[in-house]
Amino acid sequence: MASTSAIGSQPTKMVITAYADPQFKTKVASDSNPFTVWINPASYSYNRTVQYNDRQAQGAAGGSPEFNRIGDADLSFDLTFDATGVIPVPTGQSYENGVSDVVNTFIALLSTINGEIHTPNYLVVGWAGLQFQGVLTSLKIDYSLFRPDGTPLRAKLSVAFKYYASEAMLAQATGFSSPDLTHVVTVVAGDTLPALCYRIYGDSGYYAKVARFNRLVNFRDVPPGTELLFPPLSGSAS
What does CATH list as the number for 168-230? Predict the structure, then answer.
């Protein structure tokens, strides 16, 4: 477990937690999860884009860009692992094999395909005010300082992450009422799939498509509390 500061429960060490689902609800079962870094990064870089369509008419003196979407968000920083004895290692980690063990643990948790979900784990990077959920997109390792037998004693890991949110999470965050966007709806007593389709799309005939999209066995019996995804309109209701 990460140590915490005296104020609230903010971690004084950066902690990376791996999840086995895109909703970030099921933590990966591993002794190394969550992963506590040895030395906090000296800095980190956060980048986010807002994308627009260029609507400037030919010969116009200025542009009138039209909002398209919030683009990708990226997080990057460098981590240093040092087994020279200069710093204490977190509980459960050791200097026995230099930095080899901690680097291999880091790779296994962050960038190795999880056989149960057929993709690398989903990750949450937490450190004081920083809370970033996403996936690892790049990892570069530079080794320096070695024992006489070649065991590496210091490693710098340059890592980059891309923000990730499931379709359901995006729909909940957006909350727009346009039928061209994905919606997530929690069924309440009295709701029927055709009625929900009419509310969102203006056409109850889309119920069959929505039932297939959500893999419903019986669209007439959807228990209250069920979360349904209503995808953007595509084609006719038939």
Answer: 3.10.350.10
